[in-house]
Amino acid sequence: MLDLMPEPVARLTPARTAIPIAGGAAGGRAGERPVQVRPVPIDGGGPVPLSFSTSTRGARGKPPRHFVDLTPEQRVEAVAELGEKPFRSKQLATHYFAHLTADAAEMTDLPQATRDRLVAALFPDLLTAARTLTADAGTTVKTLWHLFDGAKVESVLMRYPNRTTLCVSSQAGCGMACPFCATGQLGLTRNLSTAEIVEQVRSAARSLADGDLPGGPARLSNLVFMGMGEPLANYRAVMESVRRLVAPAPDGFGMSARNITVSTVGLVPAMDKLAREGIPVTLALSLHAPDDELRSELVPVNTRWSVDEALDSARNYFEVTGRRVSIEYALIKDMNDHAWRADLLGTKLNARGRGWVHVNPIPLNPTPGSIWTASDPVVERVFVDRLRAHGIPTTVRDTRGSDIDGACGQLAAEEE
Ligand code: SAH
């Protein structure tokens, strides 16, 4: 357990405490189907089980009610219950969504007593920054948040020359138990509320607007649900947060839906439901293997919805929304990086049509305690070339922040 530092601390190489996983990489010569070995936990506790319900690690209450959890009508009611005029609701929304503040001191167009009362009742502090780590000359900032009940989540803000991207968490922990993912080893603690998700966004957007990142003040342009948790397992709160993100100010941040990516292990009924929402967010499917045998090891929910079912649903998403789907594929050395698997993936994608999908191979970001590593660069190159030979647009994901464990719940795992 690391000390919690109340002040932002830049630590590029955080001390690692072992988390209870050990990888079982498969051997096998080129062209051979390797033997897959399920990772064996070093504490002998067995693999993390797949779970759709929260852990029994203490009964956790709901986060306190926050302005952002309420619909515009409910906000008016809440303000009236506090003895204030309905138009105050709109002023509060403007402060929150347009000025990116929940600080009474900044709401100078409201009388002092009014703003103090409204903020105390409607803007509880839901997130407390416990640690901040930076990388890439300050253009990548990762924050570890403590929630009201001590649960921990992370978000990562990345500034690029032509865009800014925030990676947010949708759950504390995760129940999907993917063995290569640090968050997957934690189990699920609980779902985040709408406001807990949106507060990650407001905080990042404010930090950009204030010019905290090198390059001067900027707007938040892109958002990915690729932090901790399985967003489609917390469907309601995630969709409500998306509605707040895309609603024009003052009811929301006015972001473009197409710049919001929801990444999923492949919860098929929820993917089908998302297609029917009429909000054209980008869908990313974490495939990681084109065959059920291996995918059931890497993404245990595959035992419920198979590769073909997940791909059919992804294709349906494209048909209904017109949005090209991303396939995520973490390249794990000698595990899933074989040329024949690239061919099988290309064949399965093309069997469902052309132009509907692109593939994002991601070099594995090794988690502490696991012996799995990223693929050899030459093997990665071959994998990408094979996919492209099938006509599949393929771009290797850049691995920003991997030196601060940027990708996958590792910071929170360290503290458990
Ligand atoms: N639950 C969602 C969001 C998770 S994180 C999902 O699974 O899609 C976003 C992506 O990071 C997923 O594709 C996930 O499989 C991948 N990922 C997790 N751990 C990783 C690791 N150690 N290295 C590389 N990618 C990883």
Automatic annotation (TrEMBL):
Its EC number is 2.1.1.-, 2.1.1.192. It is found in: Cytoplasm. Its cofactor is [4Fe-4S] cluster. The keyword Iron-sulfur applies. One of its GO terms (molecular function) is metal ion binding. Residues 160-403 form the Radical SAM core domain. Pfam families: Radical_SAM, RlmN_N. Keywords: 4Fe-4S, Cytoplasm, Iron, Iron-sulfur, Metal-binding, Methyltransferase, rRNA processing, S-adenosyl-L-methionine, Transferase, tRNA processing. The keyword Repeat does not apply. Transmembrane segments: none annotated. InterPro entries: Aldolase_TIM, Methyltransferase_A, RlmN_N, RNA_MTrfase_RlmN, rRNA_lsu_MTrfase_RlmN/Cfr, rSAM, rSAM_sf. This is Dual-specificity RNA methyltransferase RlmN. The lineage of its organism: unclassified sequences, metagenomes, ecological metagenomes.
